[in-house]
């Protein structure tokens, strides 16, 4: 009886500790994002419904096509949206995106296929704002009153893996990061980023460029994140809470089991 009680108690304590650990990186990443004051932040953790909730600015989006919510996310304990590459997208049609002198667009993507054309993660439908996209050729771009900012394309490969993608836009110093590493830059100078009233997730220019895969945790800032900030966000995604040592869990289990045994003995006396 004691052995059964000890085993079940130890297992329960282990499960509690594990649950706390696997959710830690989602919590840590969210804290890092919110600490840098995003203009909007879509966690994409919804499990039902047709609305993508912006937890910061209230710029909620409409889920369209066969977009699936509740898919496994970039972090343990989180969810994401899944797109089949055929008419699926989320549209944000409130607010003005761009128009200022600095901007950052940040997201996580996980593709099923390299595709035969661009796959948009976050993008305007017109030649405005930023086009954060993935493919094996071409470019990521942003449109300003000083000209077009051209950056390298982000690779979809390896497929079926999560990647962190950030475009940090500032006059004379625009940078693109993938998984915390700078993969391109531009020195185009400007005073404002061309604004748009509509942006999409999972679709892009001219209403095409559909994405086949998953997208998670999109944030937009009206400032240009520094390299150290981008790297801090990426590092936070892999943070894990401290899990009690097995010996501590076992001792706790023994203590609880012993207490149960003493109580049982007392009642049987």
UniProtKB/TrEMBL annotation:
Which SUPFAM superfamilies has this protein been placed in? Concanavalin A-like lectins/glucanases
Ordered alphabetically, the record's keywords are: Disulfide bond, Membrane, Signal, Transmembrane, Transmembrane helix
Q: From which domain of life does this come? A: Bacteria
Q: Does the keyword Oxidoreductase apply?
A: no
From the UniProt annotation, give the residues forming the signal peptide.
Answer: 1-24
A Pfam family hit: PEP-CTERM
Its transmembrane ranges are 236-261
Q: Is the keyword Kinase in the record?
A: no
Recorded hits in InterPro entries, A to Z, give: ConA-like_dom_sf (IPR013320), Ice-binding_C (IPR013424), LamG-like (IPR006558)
Q: Where is the LamG-like jellyroll fold domain?
A: 101-228
Q: What is this protein called?
A: LamG-like jellyroll fold domain-containing protein
Q: Which organism is it from?
A: SAR86 cluster bacterium
Give the classification, highest ranks.
Answer: Bacteria, Pseudomonadati, Pseudomonadota, Gammaproteobacteria, SAR86 cluster
